[in-house]
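Record 1 of the preview.
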Amino acid sequence: MEEKVIDKATSDKISFMTYIVPEFAAAYKMKVRDAFLYLKKYGAWDFLNEHWWALHTDNVLYTLDDLYEVCRENGGLK
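->
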């Protein structure tokens, strides 16, 4: 069986996304699962997937604020 290898960009993306969701959860006092579902429901997961490269270079507080704003603009809690 051939071993699958993940390229560096994909590995970096996975690392960032598995880091930022728990950070979002902690910042807004949510369980990690609930934070993921909230981000997904209100469009921030798609935003994160699309813009992760730029977001990962920013200060984590700005990234969390960006994710919050995307959710808010799409009907999330204000």
